[in-house]
Design goal:
heterodimer; A: about 110 residues; mainly beta; 6-stranded mixed β-sheet; 5-stranded antiparallel β-sheet; B: about 110 residues; 7-stranded mixed β-sheet; 4-stranded antiparallel β-sheet
Chain lengths: ~110, ~110
């Protein structure tokens, strides 16, 4: 079945540094979604990308969808302690169920 | 608008017992999905219900089952609990029939002793 791979598994950055997580799918995706889960919390939807090569920004967060619609990235500029959490990408799998990547855990040192 | 509500939030069971978890989706949402989250396996899809019908099922043994009621509320049941079933069980609702933004509940944290 369809697999969504995410790297890195874990990243520890100094506050103010940038952060990027990458997502790769074994198949072409109709769309890709990104979620954030704070420690002890539940996943919260951030964004959905649909078009090939699409780039969307939310304040310090920049999301990209690859030209082949098989990869995506989330970049955070100048991280803050509020960015701490696990970032998941997710894409439609068999039967249209949402398949999640393993997530990237972000820790920020102040 | 109230969010997705899951009960109970925490529970402890022993091996061999069974457990039922409940999920009330956001009003008007007809699709409910269940995920199991563990530190080693991430978010694993269990099943999805839409209008009382199971539309998708993940790769879990038959001990895991679920259902959806006419008011869109959903329950999942795990029978003959094993230690490895300890996890956070997340319910998510979606207003549409197609894959779109999922609205997650706080989860039910199950510990099996």
């Amino acid at each position: 079945g369809q697999q969504v791979m995410q790297i890195p598994q874990y990243q520890h950055v100094q506050e103010g540094e940038d952060f990027t997580t990458y997502c790769n799918s074994s198949t072409t995706l109709s769309n890709i979604q990104w979620y954030k889960q704070r420690p002890g919390g539940h996943p919260v939807f951030l964004i959905q990308l649909v078009k090939s090569g699409e780039v969307k920004k939310q304040k310090r967060l920049t999301f990209q969808f690859g030209e082949a619609k098989k990869n995506s990235s989330l970049h955070i500029t100048a991280t803050q302690t509020t960015d701490v959490g696990t970032y998941f990408c997710a894409g439609p799998g068999d039967g249209n169920k949402l398949v999640f990547g393993a997530g990237t855990i972000l820790r920020v040192k102040s | 608008k109230a969010g997705v509500t899951q009960t109970p939030r925490y529970l402890i069971k022993t091996r061999g017992q069974q457990v039922t978890l409940s999920c009330s989706p956001i009003s008007g949402h007809r699709s409910v999905s269940w995920y199991q989250q563990t530190p080693g396996q991430g978010l694993q899809f269990l099943f999805e219900y839409f209008s009382e019908t199971q539309r998708n099922k993940g790769n879990f043994p038959g001990r895991f089952s679920g259902r959806q009621f006419s008011n869109s509320r959903s329950e999942m049941n795990v029978s003959t609990l094993e230690l490895g079933d300890s996890a956070l069980y997340l319910c998510a609702s979606n207003p549409a029939e197609n894959t779109g933004e999922l609205f997650f509940g706080e989860g039910s944290r199950l510990t099996v002793l």
